[in-house]
Sequence to fold (148 residues):
Amino acid sequence: MRAKNGIRATQRGQRPNEPEDPFRMRDVASILLDCGLRPEECYRLEWEQIRGGGMHIPFGKTENARRSIPLTKRVAALLDVRRATSTSRWVFPAPTESGHIEQSSLKKPHARACRIAGIEYFLPYTFRHTCLTLWSAYMDPYALAYFA
Fold:
């Protein structure tokens, strides 16, 4: 967090902490917005689920949650960058009991991003609603229901 006259760690003669994964919030938001996943589905994504130009969701909130979603160019590119440096089975690893990010992992970064952007805080689930609304202009209701 910045002090009024600079970074506090620098003022104390220390080096500021670098974020563990500076692009995590951007990447999660991009996946939620482009692919319409539920946040929990994104948080527990494994590399084996990303194949053949798609994201394969093996389970979820209901039995119908099993589906394959095509990757957008943006999501494919950001996943390629992540995969190149990944040493974990998780797309978004974290030092949690589960081994991947969870809702609590993004609570503060998301709130901070909203504050910096000058917008009112919204739940990450809103990205899913926005995606499905955008898709509805280009898909018939049955295709939309499958991807949702």
Observations:
- The chain has seven helices and five strands.
- Residues 58 and 104 are 23 Å apart (CA to CA).
- The chain has a mean pLDDT of 87.
- The beta strands are 2-3, 6-7, 50-51, 54-57, 67-70.
